[in-house]
Batch of 4 targets.
Target 1
Amino acid sequence: MSDSPNHPENATFAQLGEVLHNHQSFVLISHVRPDGDAIGSQLALGFALLAAGKNVRLINEDGLPDNLTFMPGSEKIELPPAEPLEVEVAIALDTATKPRLGDRALHAASRAKLWLNIDHHISNPRYGDLNLIDSTSPATGQILYQLIIAAGLPLPAETRDAIYVAVSTDTGSFQYPSTTAKTYEMAADLIHRGLDVGTINSLIYDNYPFRRVELMRELLNTLQISADGLLAHWELRDQTRIDLALLPEDSEGLIDIIRAIRGVQLAVFFEELIDGKIRISMRSKTRKLDVCQIAMEFGGGGHALAAGIRMAGPLEDAKAQVLDAIHRRIQAADL
Ligand code: 5GP
Ligand code: MN
């Protein structure tokens, strides 16, 4: 478990461990619209460092989403302060590109002398002074588990639970092909360390607000499937967001419903954002159709089987461009 991910440009666990041990003040940041792996990664490493006696701030451009307030220690997640923090080290977690940390969060971390970038997105351009990018890891939380163990940092209860939430939410509950024996061995170790699996799963998966199910109904009314049955997509309009008083996290994971249709190889979710931009979320069932490649055509990124884009609207134009690119890729993929 203590091997460093094998990439010539990666820092080793030993190098990162040295940075963590030899500095006193840290700011940990994750991406805008944070998910379970983003917040989970901040809490996992944050509480390990706190238990080691460090000064730690955990900031996120969008703050803590409502669906993750059950996570022990999550009250430590703050909105970026207006003035830059006096910290030695900034650590970007689970964030594929530096701008995805958000302008206010970047400003808050601007006095840091050293940047660490720890992530599992293959498209990550290695924007840190030290980088640890392991695209074979199903979640950043799993990389942090390995790092914490390898560096001999404490693993308090908040860290234990956060690692589990990070990995569970990024693997569709230990289902996606990125889930390996290492992932299950890690989960077993967390249970040995006192993790209450039943309770935490219930808090993650049996605890949705009613408006999320209403959103599901609205989305189903927009569902379209291609004539060959390979592509399914649906969309969320601004008006629906207003009518149902939706929060950004309410749509998290719903794309898995259409990804699960038999025969569908590619699922796409189009969403009008408050700022007028369009968010596109894509899931593939096959490595022959690499959605990260499609996303990168439009300035987005992610993983081979799960990727996203944020692009200019209006929805109809964005949809036409992305569906066109998808159809080209499907033709070329020879499924
Ligand atoms: P989701 O569809 O769950 O929002 O994102 C799927 C994956 O794609 C995540 O790993 C996420 O980090 C990445 N991703 C989503 N949206 C964007 C984006 O606008 N830009 C980049 N670079 N990556 C994205
Ligand atoms: Mn992740």
Target 2
Amino acid sequence: MEIRVLPLPADRMKTKVRDELQLGFGKYFTDRMLLVEWKTGREWCDARIEPYAPFVLDPACLVFHYGQEIFEGLKAYKWADGRIALFRPEMNARRFNQSGARLCMPALPEELFLTGIEQLVALEKAWIPSAPGTSLYIRPTLIAVEPVLGVKPSEHYYFYVILSPVGAYYAAGFNPVAILVEDYYVRAVPGGTGEAKTGGNYASSLKAGLEAKKKGYDQVLWLDGRERRFIEEVGAMNMFFVYGTKIVTAPLNGSILSGVTRDSVLKLAPTLGYQVEERPIDVNELFADIKAGKVSEAFGSGTAAVITPVGKLCYKDECHQLTGGRVGEITQKLYDTLTGIQTGKLQDDFGWIRFIG
Ligand code: COI
């Protein structure tokens, strides 16, 4: 499908943040966005890259009432030699359609997802930061825009992509975060939407997150929705626990997100001499193992969060400091290797990098 590029008037061009180390996460957006529509009978149509601007939408649109929405998150990196790299974007294209299928939304041809992003990022390449720890965050989104109040799948959708130059997701940067295991609220249940990347999962996590923040934690770690016993994920990250040289994470059970970074850690770790294990993790056993000194490190993984060390983990009345509150050796090694591949400092033996242009 041809993507029209609409002119960008000079007075619509924004000023870029000068100090890339002050970017934070998701606060600034580039000059242009990609928009493709889907209408019953016409399928995907009217693809265009246009100046970034607010949408004018009917207040009755389905997305506002029943939350028919999905999104993705991936990053573009500017390499020292000037090339622009995307990291495993095919995985995001596939997951986008898996999320869409759960929400009864039309499948987007993966080629359109990929070429649309590539064309947009190529046009906006001046926005890709290059300071250490920065990148261009890409946010593909699909929303239901049919104005009708009946609960049903929409007959009209907007697929759009916006770009945001970012630094670290957590304000503290690559530093250990404090996590509270949530023992009351749940994020997902078997058969629910936990595996889909849909806004509702994040909306329903806000209350627990705010309550934990008031107590001084950065995030909550969700337990399974049936027994509140097995470790699931932190909303913005999958979780890993290090036992000696073995790295353990929860299995993809249908209620946690199938993270691209999670998958990358599972593939990278064995090449660095670590064993990996995907198995149900009982929170009581985990805490007994931490108490017994068997768990040396814990970290989260995510596109925005990259690899985030966990320095403190609490459950009910029990709190543990991990790795003396510092970044663990294995966590650091995985972070260095993953970001090294993403930024072109280390060789990509996996074929994970897709260059633009
Ligand atoms: C991402 O890591 O890309 C996400 O979508 C998580 C979000 C909480 C920023």
Target 3
Amino acid sequence: MITKQKGTYDIYGDLAKKRAYVDEILATLCEKYNYGYIETPVFEASELFHRGVGETTDMVQKETYDFKDRGDRDITLRPEGTAGVVRWFVENKLYGNMTDPIKVFYNMKMYRYERPQSGRNREFTQWGFECFGSDDVMSDAEVISLAYNAYRLLGLDDVTIKLNSLGDTESRNNYREALINYFRPHIDELCEDCKERLEKNPLRILDCKVDAESEIIKNAPKTLDYLNEESKNRFEKLKDMLDLMEINYEVDTKLVRGLDYYNHVVFEVVLNDSYALGGGGRYNGLVETLGGPSVPGVGFAMGYDRTILAMEENGVNIPINDSIDVYILYVSESEKETACYLTQDLRLNGFIAETDSMARSLKAQFKSVDRFNAKYLIVLNDSELESNKVTIKDNKTKQEESVNINDLLDYLDMHM
Ligand code: HAM
């Protein structure tokens, strides 16, 4: 038997219905914030993600699905959405005439070679949004508000935004120096990867999974102590705006996020202190890193699968339609012909309609009526059909009514 790959899963049945419900809520909300939909390709040139996310990040060193295609090109399966969206932005020169910010949202599968566990898969979905062209704190606040309200609309009222600032380039460089000076005397106590990270990318020592519990890492310098005045003011202003919008946030001085492109605000959404349900931040240098001019950007991605899991675990009632509107039953060949066109007619007029397509007995058809939880059933009958009538039965009250077949749609419209 061929089985699915580790860290992947099939989406069907109730889960598919739950996802459709969540999709609709999120798409509607993104549209309210004036974001337009975008999808980028599942595979791109490896260079895009390697350069965009950062060569020394865990994601690029350990998690990307990299391969050569038949034309000997280096290809990577999309591990995250931001780099691809930036590639789209640069490739289409959308920076040319930016009178307003360009705002897009996506719902895309991502691929990371991680150790699968609950809420961590190798194929997973992110709902994300990116905003290009504004360096004003107002756009940080908008992205955080969109993220926060998405969870709240999904019924996860108790989420908290964990917030930190990495500051501008000057602040980041000062912080980098401080980390190198702090870690150098302790480097022998850290893992081999961290030894390499020390000179290349000391920030990444802070999210090392091997040394996560080490006191050395816990006591490392904090970004906020290295922010210059401008970056500090900016962070204060952002917090004021979040207060104004009554967004539940907490400053977490340890939060640095595992991708290299961030500066200024970084944030994650958590519930009951478990793993992050989503994360984002500002990435003012990324457009330039990927070949465009200097255009600021800020964005967020929700761990969609984790969010649905959290909804289930927290008892959020996700409405799932587990019934159909009408089941049409029949016996004779002429009744079957009527069932054939009548079912189509109902379906095209917006009703969920079903009939027998397995040439089964009436008894078996009645069992389907129950299994599909049909609200109404119609048992076709040749003698009734001669006078253009059908009998429709309310499956709950068991009340029956004889209706002219031409009035059936009106009857259902009125009663449902
Ligand atoms: P990220 O933190 O790597 O950020 O991923 C965002 C969210 O995706 C995580 O918080 C988590 O909920 C979910 N996630 C990550 N890995 C997995 C996995 N293996 N299985 C299930 N869920 C997972 C980014 O990807 C950035 N591109 C976010 C961003 C957008 N920053 C700015 N714009």
Target 4
Amino acid sequence: MELSVARKKKITDASFHVLLNNRRVTDGHQYTQPSPSTYPYQWLWDSCFHAIALSHFSPEDAKKELRSAVSQQFENGMLPHMIYWEPGTLVDIQWGREGKKRTSTITQPPLIAEAVWRIFEKDGDAAFLAEMYPALSSFYEYLLTARDPRGNHLAGIINPDESGEDNSPRFDDVLGLPPVQTLQENFKSRLKLVEELRNGHFDAPFMKQYFWVKDVPFNAILVENLVVLGRIAGHLSKHEDALKFTEASRRVADAMRERMFDGDLFWPTYSESYFKVKLKTWAIFAPLYAGILSEDEAAKLVEEHLLNPSEFLSNFMLPTVAMNERTFDPQGFWRGPVWFASNWFVYRGLLRYDYQNIADRLLENSMELLEKSGFREYYHPDTGAGLGAHDFTWGALVVDMIGRNSRG
Ligand code: GLC
């Protein structure tokens, strides 16, 4: 894919501009607000995206972003998905932790090992790996234990927000919501879960009776990031840990295959009987990112679903929900529009399996979205119109997509 120097420069400059404009420093903690008008706090997986994008411009700023993301780690190792550094405009959820710095009491997808590693790849600063290692190892340990109390090798999430896809139809059944619903109905049921978590004194397994989903992207991200964490441990000569995390990764990958794989696709599961939610969202492609499909399985997935015009082959790729699903809504929050997070994960997966041409198309579409509609939270998969928050940072992931494309 030939990208003109001028085109790349324009997108790169605009990405840096949005990251810089959204940067804030509170009490010496530097972080990036995903969108100052809509999301004026720090979020965990957003910070990982920011750090990955920033590693291309300024590894030092990427490090600061992650340092502040781990600065409010819980004693049990959990990294909160939100840190309310300053009073903001967003609806102020009473997560139940009062204190000097207020945080949420749930987490988000575990991409932080990769974010740390990507910075190290840029500047080779092993001291940064050593500095981050205690926070990383206790976070992943937490996921492997508190989120897997029965030792089944899959991490459970206790609220849809932990998936990063708050309103995804993958969670409708578990929440007891109809396929067509209002934002308010959905929000209300997630707030109810926050209340139950407070009632249960923030003990994750207590939530099993209300919401406990083994989700596909969360566990796929865990598989890949445990491998990266093992690599980090190896670099720090912590050989036992390196082995431990690498083996844990393999066990999660095996469990995903055993419990989630059915009819050629991986599905989220819930309940003790591992009931599968067979609803097609972009999550069916997340295993590509973690390399847990065979070449043949990947080929079938790409040909039958990604390149299927009634499912995921939209004018602007990639809709977050298959277009022929009943729940598909091209403007609904996580219920159809294109988001840069899912595009980035799928792009990584396509390159991993050598689908260069399709990865090129995904990159081309991602660039077109920025050129046509600017840095928005999500986009209409048919028209490319920008939707949701303005000055939203995730478009900056395109800089990383360009950087990883050998033909870029
Ligand atoms: C929304 C998204 C979530 C993100 C947050 C901040 O809640 O669903 O993934 O982390 O906004 O951007």
